Each structure stands twice: as structure tokens, then as C-alpha cells.
Amino acid sequence: MRICVVGDELATGVGDARALGWTGRVVARTHFSRPAMLFTLAVPGETSTQLGARWEAETAARFGPDSEIENRLVVALGRHDVAAGLTVARSRLNLANILDVADANRTAAFVVGPPPGAPAEGDRIAELSDAFADVASRRRVPYVDTYTPLAQHEQWLADLAQGGGVYPGQAGYGLMAWLVLHTGWHAWLGLPQDEVA
Questions:
Q1: Is 96 strand, coil or helix?
Q2: Where is the SGNH hydrolase-type esterase domain (predicted)?
Q3: 159: which of 15, 85, 138, 151 lies 20 to 30 Å off by Cα?
Q4: What is the CA radius of gyration of the chain?
């Protein structure tokens, strides 16, 4: 199995002293029946428009052409659409296009939504997350809402404050990993649910 994670710098764990981020923690808790390859393909400050323009070419170089290789795509959406002033309609369309192309290429997708950031952007990130969730739901693609459960979470807010209000630290990425692991990750990979600890 080859899994490509595309997204912004949050996908790589910026701000995590252990350099694992949520992706490293999720993979560490996933017991594959055969060795799997995970590639984190992140671009700092990237919007969903920019992600949509590059993801296919970058994953194509890593996905296997052999029919015996399972190719999987994780779309890790950040908060930069808000800062860039993209409309929710544009952000929805960008994700829809990514998921439709992945489906046409027979690549199973999994979407992780944007987590809370600056309080002033809270309502806009919440709206963006809801829109992304709707797009994924319409395509029967698993979606992890990281915004709603973390927006008022004391540990997340404390961790974010230590990172200047932009990036979480170890605790924050641990919370994101927990949400991913408990929102269909193992089922998406075809692994038993009891693997989650």
C-alpha cells in the first residue's frame, strides 16, 4: 500500500518537538498486514486552489502503476483558504475536483479538515470545515472534522497558545491523531477497528 498525504505544513507536524505531527502518530498506531509506504507531500501556506493544481502530478510519481499496489490519498486541508480570502464556494469546488479526479483514477481518498487557529478566524474556519464535510459526504469519502471537537478543547487551546496561536505542539497533534484514528481510518484501510489503542 502507498499512501500519499497532501496538504499544507500542518501535515508535516510543524511545531511538534517530536517531529511526528498527526501523520506520524497515526501511522505509528496503524498495524498494516504488509509494509506500507507513506509520503507526506506538504507545501507551506498552501490554499486548496494551489493544492488542487499540484497534487495529481506529485502523487503520480509515488503511486504504483502495478495493479497489486493499493494507492491511497489523504487530503489534509489547512486554514489558508480563510487567510487568502477564498470563497467557501471556491474551496468546495477545489476539494470536489480533487476527490472526483482521485475517484476517476480509482484512488481511495480520506479527508482531514482544518483545525482551529486564530480565534478571529473561528467562524470562517468552522464554515469551511462544514463545507468540506458536505463535499466529502456527497462522495462517500471519510471526513475527519478536527475543528468542532477542538475549538473549545482546553488542551488544544493551551498548546496552540504556546505555538503563537498558529501551530499546535505535541499535545495538539496527538489530539488530531486521535480524531483521525477514531473517525474511520482503520475501516478506510480495510483493517480491524480493534487496532485502535
A1: helix
A2: 5-174
A3: 85
A4: 16
Q: What is the identity of the amino acid at 193?
A: Q
The pTM score is 0.95
**C-alpha to C-alpha distance for 188 and 59, rounded to whole angstroms:** 19
Picking from 66, 50, 26, the residue whose alpha carbon sits closest to that of residue 175 is: 26
29-66 tens-digit pLDDT: 999 988 899 999 999 999 999 999 999 999 999 997 77
Cell 488530531 belongs to 176
Give the number of other CB atoms < 10 A from CB of residue 79.
23
Spatial separation of the C-alpha atoms in residues 92 and 114, rounded to whole Å: 13
In three-state form (DSSP H/G/I as H, E/B as E, the rest C), the secondary structure along 104-137 is HCCCEEEEECCCCCCHHHHHHHHHHHHHHHHHHH
* Single-letter amino acid, residue 41: L
| Per-residue cell: 65 | 502503476
